[in-house]
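Deliverable D2.4 — example input (structure tokens):
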């Protein structure tokens, strides 16, 4: 009798031991699975950095002789629209031989399809190479792209083994993608006088990190272990010795239409002006601004149209950017009646005007949203109109000869290109599309992309 009771006692302990071991194994499996999912998701989102490096057209072995420094970029599977490359040279060992009126300056590379410009600082050893893709697809692929050739002359006091350095200014060396900066690995150029070397060998890296959103494992991959309870095991049946059952928790799908197909409209109201303290909040997204820029406050023209208004109501509102590059502004008016069939038109100083007919429109591709008929309803004193899922294209600038003309065209492109790197604050503010308080090729590339979106 004692032996049978002891045997039953041992079996219960054995059962709990099996359950504990099974739970531990399942937990380890779940954790490792989630880690693998997170790593795969992160790897899928990261974009490989573009490589920037120097080569020579010939070995540097003869004092006083000229050679060409060749600046190259390799997209490395990534892509970019514009480039702004800044580097210094070792003026104690080489001197610039290029004629800045002929060899440098402004040029159009017909083969690669981009505009470029090369400038040398008169008082320092700094050289700037910047340019942008002119229409079509961005610069991409995995092959080296020759960006510039600059002639240098070796000084007479060199000795064999001397190192000649061409060094990137990583802070001011940038690449522009469609919406954000592109990651860049710049390889320093260290060349040895008297050697056969023509390719930079230094592995010193200066990186501009890409903007990568946080990795959130999809809910559909969340696995929930279900452990059998000893109290629920039918008497006389053996306890299963396999790991616990895994159930997959699937979220209920939410379908968001691209554009509303039908709207239930309230009865047409009579004139009922809103009170003095009404606030209509508007959220916007501008092409080329993916985070809070240096210039984080922007005057935006907002025009409200509707059948209950005798004429369109236009105001200039100060919009403020948050850390994600979403701009918020508030329209306050006591003369907008509550009702329906309204539309809002918004125009930033550096972006084309867009008219919105829906309270929270969504577009899958920039430039595809169209305002067909007015479907915005104003029903309360406090409302939010989220237009931030529609990109306002870059361009349509105010130039020297007058205000913006309502379209992104060659007039805007010529104006930006003519004032790249300008130090005139009034002109710079007109061409500074991305709000970094500089007039650079990044702004030019964004305008070209805006021109493509508009078409």
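Example output (designed residues):
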């Amino acid at each position: 009798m004692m032996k049978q009771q002891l045997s039953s006692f041992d079996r219960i302990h054995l059962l709990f031991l099996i359950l504990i071991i099974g739970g531990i194994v399942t937990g380890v499996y779940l954790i490792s699975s989630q880690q693998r999912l997170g790593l795969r998701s992160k790897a899928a989102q990261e974009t490989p950095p573009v490589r920037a490096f120097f080569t020579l057209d010939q070995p540097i072995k003869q004092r006083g002789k000229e050679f060409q420094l060749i600046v190259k970029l390799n997209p490395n599977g990534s892509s970019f629209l514009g480039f702004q490359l800044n580097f210094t040279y070792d003026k104690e060992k080489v001197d610039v031989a290029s004629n800045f009126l002929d060899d440098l300056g402004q040029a159009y590379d017909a083969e690669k399809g981009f505009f470029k410009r090369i400038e040398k600082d008169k008082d320092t050893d700094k050289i700037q190479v910047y340019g942008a893709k002119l229409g079509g697809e961005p610069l991409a692929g995995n092959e080296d792209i020759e960006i510039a050739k600059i002639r240098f002359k070796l000084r007479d006091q060199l000795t064999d083994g001397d190192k000649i350095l061409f060094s990137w200014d990583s802070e001011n060396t940038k690449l522009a993608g469609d919406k954000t900066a592109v990651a860049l690995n710049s390889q320093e150029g260290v060349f040895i006088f008297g050697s056969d070397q023509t390719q930079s060998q230094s592995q010193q890296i200066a990186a501009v990190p890409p903007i990568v959103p946080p990795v959130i494992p999809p809910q559909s991959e969340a696995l929930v272990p279900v452990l059998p309870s000893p109290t629920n095991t039918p008497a006389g049946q053996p306890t299963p010795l396999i790991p616990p059952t895994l159930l997959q928790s699937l979220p209920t799908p939410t379908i968001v239409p691209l554009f509303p197909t039908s709207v239930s409209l309230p009865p047409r109201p009579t004139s009922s002006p809103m009170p003095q303290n009404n606030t209509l909040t508007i959220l916007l997204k501008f092409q080329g601004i993916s985070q809070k820029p240096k210039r984080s406050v922007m005057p935006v023209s907002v025009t409200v149209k509707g059948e209950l208004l005798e004429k369109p109501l236009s105001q200039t509102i100060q919009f403020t950017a948050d850390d994600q590059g979403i701009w918020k502004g508030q329209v306050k008016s006591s003369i907008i009646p509550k009702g329906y069939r309204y539309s809002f038109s918004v125009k930033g100083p550096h972006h084309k005007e867009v008219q919105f007919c829906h309270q929270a429109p969504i577009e899958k591709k920039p430039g595809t949203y169209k305002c067909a008929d007015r479907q915005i309803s104003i029903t309360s004193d406090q409302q939010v109109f989220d237009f931030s899922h529609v990109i306002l294209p870059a361009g349509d600038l105010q130039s020297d000869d007058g205000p913006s003309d309502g379209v992104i065209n060659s007039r805007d492109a010529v104006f930006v290109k003519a004032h790249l790197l300008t130090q005139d604050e009034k002109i710079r503010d007109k061409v500074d599309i991305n709000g970094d308080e500089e007039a650079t090729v990044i702004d030019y590339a964004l305008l070209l992309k805006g021109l493509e979106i508009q078409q």
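Helices lie at 2-45, 410-418, 425-431, 441-454.
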